[in-house]
Amino acid sequence: MQQALTLSERLIAVLGARLGLRFFRRRDMLETLDAPAHGHEAPPGLLEAARGAGPDLLARLCTTRDGLSDDEAATVRAHVGPNEVEHEKPLPWWRHLINCYRNPFNLLLTALAAVSYATDDTEGTIIIASMVIISTVLRFVQEARSNKAAEKLKAMVSTTASVLRRGPLTQGVAEPENVRRLGRMGREIALADLVPGDIVLLAAGDMIPADVRILTAKDLFVSQSALTGEALPVEKFAHPCESGGSNPLAYDNLAFMGTNVVSGSATAVVVATGGRTFFGSLAQRVSAQQPSVTSFQQGVNRVSWVLIRFMLVMTPIVLLINGFTKHDWLEASLFALSVAVGLTPEMLPMIVTATLAKGAVVLSRKKVIVKRLDAIQNFGAMDVLCTDKTGTLTQDKICLERHTDVWGNFSEDVLEYAYLNSFYQTGLKNLLDVAVLDHAELHQRLDVVNRYRKIDEIPFDFQRRRMSVVVSENGDHHELICKGAVEEVMAVCNRVQHGANVEPLTPDVLAQLRRVTAHLNAEGLRVVAVATRHLPPVRERYSIADESELILVGYIAFLDPPKESTAPALKALASAGVDVKVLTGDNDLVTAKVCREVGLPVTACVLGDDIEAMSDTELAGIVERANVFAKLTPAHKERLVRMLRANGHVVGFMGDGINDAPALRAADIGISVDTAVDIAKEAADLILLEKSLMVLEQGVVEGRRTFANMLKYIKMTASSNFGNVFSVLIASAFLPFLPMLPLQLLTQNLLYDLSQTTIPFDHVDAEQLTKPQQWNPSDLSRFMVFFGPISSIFDVLTFVAMWHLFGANSAEHQTLFQSGWFVEGLLSQTLIVHLIRTRRLPFIQSRAAWPLLLMTGAVMLIGIMLPMSPFAETFKMQALPLAYFPMLAAILLAYAVLTQWMKGVFARRFGWQ
Q1: Residue 30, CB half-sphere, CA atoms under 13 Å: how many?
Q2: Residues 554 and 417 in one domain
Q3: From the candidates 374, 388, 560, 660, which is the catalytic residue?
Q4: Which residues are within 8 A (CB) of 811 and not within 5 positions of it... i.e. 6 or more apart?
Q5: Which EC numbers characterise this protein's activity in its record (predicted)?
Q6: Phi, psi for residue 503 in degrees, rounded to 5
Q7: Buried b / exposed e across 288-323, counting CB within 10 Å, b at 16+?
Q8: Measured between alpha carbons, how far is 309 from 305 in angstroms, rounded to an integer?
Q9: What are phi and psi of 245, to 5 degrees?
């Protein structure tokens, strides 16, 4: 604490002339903020902030309604640190190294190394330890590289907060007239740069960036489900709150880090940041808890335990057979120990990590940022993509195409009303508002500065699907201007503007108006209705109840042309086995026209109201048949996604709005864009830097490539391990000596493991990328039993050849036998890498990537040369006769031919993934 205050005092000396005595007052505030919260207690100062008056709180935080200056914020940040929760920081390198070591395979190998050491098997101990070290170091390096890459990727997806800062941007610079009228100029800064005392501006879709006290609020509803589990949003107010006890969640003028704004707008002052927030205090208590295991992790764990159980069953059998037949239980124990090591897929964690990390980096080059590595597998498995329309199928460059009266005739008055509404609203500004405000000439023509004054606004929400502002024209009356979805605006109108006259909105007139809007929709235009109401200037506050008895004055119609890339992207997704379904809140006629223009045949179009009336059984059938769903609420989107998942699909959802957040969380893989609202980016697993289905199709293919490479290693390991044990059992039952010494078997395993370390960089055949790939561990046993014994056939042929052709038929000649099987076993194991990696003919129709070719080639060369090298005596081997090598070539060729033929049999019966 003293050191931080000394730093503050130094800053005072430098900046005192400019900032005056405010920093001396700030010392008391810094002392208050110094201690973090503990247990279930509220963070220091939070309850006091809720109970006190706004001006008193601002004074205590040494800030103003206009916020802090950059220099003041920097001083506070130097003391309290960045606005980050501590558990989000990366682990120190030594903790990371321990985590890389701590997996079932390494722990098992360590136990085996200890047993080997206890039995004075020095060479075996060294080799097993080498396996553990190589596996741990490779995983550590790969994860360190992926973490470093992830940090760079996170910098590309920034979540910011809108704050008021007194500084160069607001001092001495002429502000735009609308900003001065509203009294605010927000600046976007990184969340980590927030400090207590900052004034933040909140609107629908924003994440609450820290613990804040509300200063002003307009129909502000905040979702606190992340903290409380409550499904419904809670309304927040700006008044001081005395009741609430010691539970900060009970105070309706506080909002907390990790929650999000559902609707409305507000200004608030930051009270606590980082670990001192309520969320931060919770995180400190639960940081030791392990995160939930994903389906991908469950699949990897199931595969791991299949192999471990296989090892636990087979190792004792090998021990007993060799013990009873060779009568040397110590040697039999060491051999069984080596078999156990050989059956341990110690490289699996490293292969999985390296493959996912490489996939994430490759996806980043394709403008896809992976927030969670395990999501890559779901990306490859996705067979249904639910997407919105605007900005995905269309260009996301909306232009105002028409402004008409209720009968479809050109009307300048309607455009003026719409301009005033968009200009004065401070909530969630969408592309429609931007298109209206592009008509800047109206600003001068309407003389907005002198004629109009904003009184109040009724913010947009997704239940009403409309918003209103109240303005005073020349101070003589108040005018409520409402714009929004046609049906929702018509529902609160009882009259229509017809030229200079106002007429009742009768059922016949309503039917005529709907024909007009349907005609506009059929032209592909998105129609927004505009209505007004004159009110006496007797009050300053308005609510949703005032949106009644309105006069419908006309429509503004927007055009969002389809993207040129959408049609080929949809075709590519279809060829990749991904069914695209459009989920939109927009009009069904507009959506259908856009779908036709981009080449997406509309099998059926279902409206939100229809979904509301359906049972789950009915909807389960509809979601399979229909591919366009229009006029949806957020709840409808979430329900559709859950129903598709219940039907057995792996569902991706692509969205960027606050209304998409529930569906993003419900999907197997949530996909958003960098320009999305904060809550959408928070809920997503993947972030696209470019909102394009073509980018998404490329990402799907890369996800499948990543998954295919992981599957290769598991197939190779399972089949090779099973074949080796089968061969060991046969040899142990009939040979008067061990078929291979423990040291030789361990060396063979080490070299084989090294040959597979470059699998993450391998190519994948095109046909493996054409359909979704799902994790199915139950297929592993079938594959293992089908291909494992093939290698045993040729191992037995090698045994026979060494026994009869080369005279290795006694204990005196066992070194020759063991050397011969060592070379054949290692080469056949390494060859299986190339045979299993593809359904095609290896080396000819499908060639491995050069890193895999080089690594496997180097391992095979080492295996051939080792018996003839100066190290042969160390490994108890001897040089093989020249006649051995033609026999070896014949055996390997026959092995490759039989395996290739069996691949065809297996693929025809069970398929090839």
Answers
A1: 25
A2: yes
A3: 388
A4: 736, 737
A5: 7.2.2.14
A6: -120, 155
A7: eeeeeeeebeebbeebbebbbebbeebbeebbebbb
A8: 6
A9: 65, -145
Which residue has better confidence, 444 or 738? 738
Same domain, 578 and 541: no
Q: Rounded to whole angstroms, how far apart are CA atoms 214 and 95?
A: 41
**What is the Cα–Cα distance from 11 to 69, expressed in whole angstroms?**
14
Quote the strand ranges of 22-136, DSSP E.
68-69
Instruction: Report CA torsion sign: 658, 660, 662, 667.
Output: negative
Structure tokens at 469: 């502002």
Using pLDDT thresholds of 50, 70 and 90, give the confidence band for residue 244: low
Bridge partners of 163?
Answer: 187, 200
363, 528 in Cβ contact below 8 A?
no
pLDDT of 73 over the 70 cut: yes
End-to-end, the C-alpha distance of the chain in Å comes to: 60
Whether 545 and 589 share a structural domain: no
What number is the average pLDDT over the span 436-461?
A: 84
Q: How far apart are CA 301 and CA 392, in angstroms?
A: 37
Across 827-850, average pLDDT: 91
CB neighbour list of residue 21: distance below 8 Å, 6 or more residues apart: none
In a domain, 104, yes or no: no
Best CA proximity match to 468, nearest among 458, 453, 455, 454? 458
Q: Is 842 helix (H, G, I), strand (E, B) or coil?
A: strand
Q: What is the 3-state secondary structure (H, E, C) of 219-247?
A: EEEEECHHHHCCCCCEEECCCCCCCCCCC
- In this structure, are residues 460 and 221 in contact, taking their beta carbons and an 8 Å threshold? no
d(CA 35, CA 49): 16
Are 231 and 303 in contact, with CB atoms under 8 Å apart? Answer: no
Burial class (CB in 10 A: 0-12, 13-18, 19+), 269: buried
Q: Are residues 587 and 712 in the same domain?
A: no
Give mean pLDDT, residues 166-191: 51
Pairwise pLDDT comparison (811 vs 3), residue with the higher score: 811
Q: With DSSP H G I counted as helix, E B as strand and the rest as coil, what are the percentages for the chain, rounded to 5?
A: 55, 15, 30
More confident residue, 610 or 113: 610
- HSE of 445, CA atoms in CB hemisphere, 13 A: 11
In a 10 Å sphere around its CB, with 0-12 CB exposed, 13-18 middle and 19+ buried, how is residue 755 labelled? buried
* pLDDT tens by residue, 2-57: 333 333 333 333 333 333 333 334 444 444 444 444 434 445 577 888 888 888 88
Residue with tokens 């559902």: 262
**What is the three-class DSSP state of 392?**
coil
Phi and psi angles of residue 504, each rounded to the nearest 5 degrees, phi first: -65, 145
The verdict on whether 388 is a catalytic residue reads yes
Are 796 and 894 members of one domain?
yes
Do 381 and 336 fall into the same domain? no
- Residue 333's H or E segment, with its range, is helix 329-342
Q: Hey, CA dihedral for 367, 372, 376, 381, is it positive or negative?
A: negative
Number of domains in the chain: 4
For the stretch 747-769, pLDDT in tens is 888 888 888 888 988 999 988 88
On whether the CB atoms of residues 709 and 764 are closer than 8 A, the answer is yes
pTM: 0.68
Q: What is the pLDDT of residue 226?
A: 62
Position 128 in a domain: no
Six-digit token pair at 50?
């809720």
Q: Give yes or no for residue 449 having a pLDDT over 90.
A: no
For 488, the 3-state DSSP assignment is helix
Q: State the Rg of the chain over Cα.
A: 35
Q: Of 350-364, 525-539, 815-829, give the lowest mean pLDDT range.
A: 350-364
For residue 839, what are the contacts with CB-CB under 8 A and spacing of at least 6? 765, 767, 768, 903, 907, 912
Are 494 and 504 within 8 A, CB to CB? yes
Cβ–Cβ < 8 Å for 341, 743: no
- Asked whether the CA dihedral 354, 355, 361, 365 is positive or negative, the reply is positive
- Domain span at residue 717 reads 300-361+700-910
Local confidence band at 325 (pLDDT 50, 70, 90 cut-offs): confident
